[in-house]
Structure formats: structure tokens, C-alpha cells
């Protein structure tokens, strides 16, 4: 079963499902620099490349390009301006057959986003050609690591040549190119597909980024339908909030979690202890599980400051009836400390690395 098959005949959110168009091979680049210094650097780049340009609107420059010229122009220009100027220089790329309208001007984006699209052109093909898949990382009982309680589905991807793509780079490019909506959805569907392919019948944790979901009843329609199509029980799935430090609208996030709960799913909060915001989210969201921030777990058995903070987080979660998962455990000392302090579950390289199919747990 492929993600494409899971997607077949499923309705949903057009914002999440439509991949942004790749940049045209030739056309016109419109640039609106924010200040005089930036304008001079831009004109210098035009002159050095011997590119003809005009100014169709006051402060908006237009230059014709082909594919290699666009990449070189952006590179030469960026070498002479600050990162803030790169962000504040608004840009728009139109193909040869497109004419500029007022509507197009509303679509201008930071030049840094255009550069990210050039550098991450592979991401368009990867999404269009279904090269996203999941690796599975076991979450084990703290007092009996041979007992696999769940697997977290971790997104992976490959290039057209089969090379593995760095997940961090993939998500960074997606954020900069306005593709997180599509990527987040593709990762959720890949997780469901992978569970079917590898016959995983334990609890599974599926990550989601709150900022990619406008209206859960629309944006999550294909996810819910894919779960039903794969014949996976809602009780088997935990949706895990990632990038919780970026949450700006708690009420919106709460509406997403309520939607999940109404459909029988459980929810988890990632990185508890990574700043005040995560503690605030804990009180508001009342998740079924929390994952202790791996920076707190790292060397916790030898760091008295981390130990005090983490022990109190475990104690607080237990009093609230929330199950705790110590994440990023890599040493026996970290495992034993978490076990002694009452953590319910453990996740980390000490027992297994993410893989597909899941590799057997090894208890030291």
C-alpha cells in the first residue's frame, strides 16, 4: 500500500494537499529592496551580470532571467547584504507567459524564501513523487525495556538517486518555502502507510506541527480517512505535538487536540521542560503523555541541576495523571535514573535506533 493509494478518493484541505509550484526555468524576477543600501547592492549585481532591468513600479525592480541566471543573481546579491536585508527584500518570480497584476504583488515573499526554493528544488520532486517514508523508534517500559509499548514514526526521505535526505534540512527548507503544510501531511500519511507495510500493531506516535493545520475538520480529513482506510484503530494512535515552543495560539492548538480526542485518538506533548511555554501548554492541553526534553535527560544522572528539574517534572506529571516518556536516553545511568525517579517509559539509542522495519530492542 502506498501513500498515493491511501490518498486516492480522499477529500481534504486544498492548502495542505497542493504542492507549491516550482520556480519556472525562465521568466521575470521582481524585487522590492527595503533601503537605499540594498537597492545599490541589487543594481550592482544587475550590472556585474550585464542584466537589463527596469522599475515598473516605484521601488520595484524587474529583471529577466533564465535558470542559471536566477541562481547566480541571488547568490551575488546576497553576498553583499545582511541577513535582515535578505529577509526584508520582497521578491516575486513569474514565468514567461505570466503578466504582473496587483494580485501578484500580494504574493511577494522574502528573497530568502526564493533562495531556499532554488537550493531545495529537490524537495518539490520528493513530495510529488512520494519519496517520504517512516522509520520507527521504540518506546519501551522503563521497568522492562523488552516490553515495547509504542513506536514513534519519524519522517525520512530519499532523493531521486536514492540518497537519504537529512530530515532537519528537509524541514528547514519546507519552512522557508511555504511547504510545511504539504510536508507535514505527507509525513502523517507516510507514517500510516509504514505501519501497514510493517504490520505494526502496537501504539504508534505520529508527529504533527500545529502551525500547519488551519481548520482540523478540513486539514485533518485525509489523515483521518487514511487511518480508517488502513483499518487502524484510533486507540492505537497518539498524535504528538512537535515544535511546541513555536505555538502562538493555544486555543487553536486545543481545538486540534479536541478534534483528535473526539475521534478516539490520544495526544502527547513533546519536549516538556524546554522553556516556560511547555509548562504552560501542559496545564492547558492536559495531554495523555509528555516527553521530557532530551536536553534535560542528557547526563541527568551526573548533573544535580538537571536532576532537580527533571525529577519535579516527573512528579508533577504523575500527580496530574500524565504518563512520562524520558526521550534521548543513551546511557545505562540515564535509564536507571529515569526509572528510579518514576518515568513510565524510555526512548533512546540505548535500546534501539529508528529503522524500518523496527529493529529489535537490545537491553544492556
TrEMBL record:
<dbReference type="Pfam" id="PF00563">
    <property type="entry name" value="EAL"/>
</dbReference>
<dbReference type="InterPro" id="IPR035919">
    <property type="entry name" value="EAL_sf"/>
</dbReference>
<feature type="domain" description="EAL">
    <location>
        <begin position="116"/>
        <end position="364"/>
    </location>
</feature>
<dbReference type="InterPro" id="IPR001633">
    <property type="entry name" value="EAL_dom"/>
</dbReference>
<protein>
    <submittedName>
        <fullName>Diguanylate phosphodiesterase</fullName>
    </submittedName>
</protein>
<dbReference type="InterPro" id="IPR050706">
    <property type="entry name" value="Cyclic-di-GMP_PDE-like"/>
</dbReference>
<dbReference type="GO" id="GO:0071111">
    <property type="term" value="F:cyclic-guanylate-specific phosphodiesterase activity"/>
</dbReference>
Amino acid at each position: 500500500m502506498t501513500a498515493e493509494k491511501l490518498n486516492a478518493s480522499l477529500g481534504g484541505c486544498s492548502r495542505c494537499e497542493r504542492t507549491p509550484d516550482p520556480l519556472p526555468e525562465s521568466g521575470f524576477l521582481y524585487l522590492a529592496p527595503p533601503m537605499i543600501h540594498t537597492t545599490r547592492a541589487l543594481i550592482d549585481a544587475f550590472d556585474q551580470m550585464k542584466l537589463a532591468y527596469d522599475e515598473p513600479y516605484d521601488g520595484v525592480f524587474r529583471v529577466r532571467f533564465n535558470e542559471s541566471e536566477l541562481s547566480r543573481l541571488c547568490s551575488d546579491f546576497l553576498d553583499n547584504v545582511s541577513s535582515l536585508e535578505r529577509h526584508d527584500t520582497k521578491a516575486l518570480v513569474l514565468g514567461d507567459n505570466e503578466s504582473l497584476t496587483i494580485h501578484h504583488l500580494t504574493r511577494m515573499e522574502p528573497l530568502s524564501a526564493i533562495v531556499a526554493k532554488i537550493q531545495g528544488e529537490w524537495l518539490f520532486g520528493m513530495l510529488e513523487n512520494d519519496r517520504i517514508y517512516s522509520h520507527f523508534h521504540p518506546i519501551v517500559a522503563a521497568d522492562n525495556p523488552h516490553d515495547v509499548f509504542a513506536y514513534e514514526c519519524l519522517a525520512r526521505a530519499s532523493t531521486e538517486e536514492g540518497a537519504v535526505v537529512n530530515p532537519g534540512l528537509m524541514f528547514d527548507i519546507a519552512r522557508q518555502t511555504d511547504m510545511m503544510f504539504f510536508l507535514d501531511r505527507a509525513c502523517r500519511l507516510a507514517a500510516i502507510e509504514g505501519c501497514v507495510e510493517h504490520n505494526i500493531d502496537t501504539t504508534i506516535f505520529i508527529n504533527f506541527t500545529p502551525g500547519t493545520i488551519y481548520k482540523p475538520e478540513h486539514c485533518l480529513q485525509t489523515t483521518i480517512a487514511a487511518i480508517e482506510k488502513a483499518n487502524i484503530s484510533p486507540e492505537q494512535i497518539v498524535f504528538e505535538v512537535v515544535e511546541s515552543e513555536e505555538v502562538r495560539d493555544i486555543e487553536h492548538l486545543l481545538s486540534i487536540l479536541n478534534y483528535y480526542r473526539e475521534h478516539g485518538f490520544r495526544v502527547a506533548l513533546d519536549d516538556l521542560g524546554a522553556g516556560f511555554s511547555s509548562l504552560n501548554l501542559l496545564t492547558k492541553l492536559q495531554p495523555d503523555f509528555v516527553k521530557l526534553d532530551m536536553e534535560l535527560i542528557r547526563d541527568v544522572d551526573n548533573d544535580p541541576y538537571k536532576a532537580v528539574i527533571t525529577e519535579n517534572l516527573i512528579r508533577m506529571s504523575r500527580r496530574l495523571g500524565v504518563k512520562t516518556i524520558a526521550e534521548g536516553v543513551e546511557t545505562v545511568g540515564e535509564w536507571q535514573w529515569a526509572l528510579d525517579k518514576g518515568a513510565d517509559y524510555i526512548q533512546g539509542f540505548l535500546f534501539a535506533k529508528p529503522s524500518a522495519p523496527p529493529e529489535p530492542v537490545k537491553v544492556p
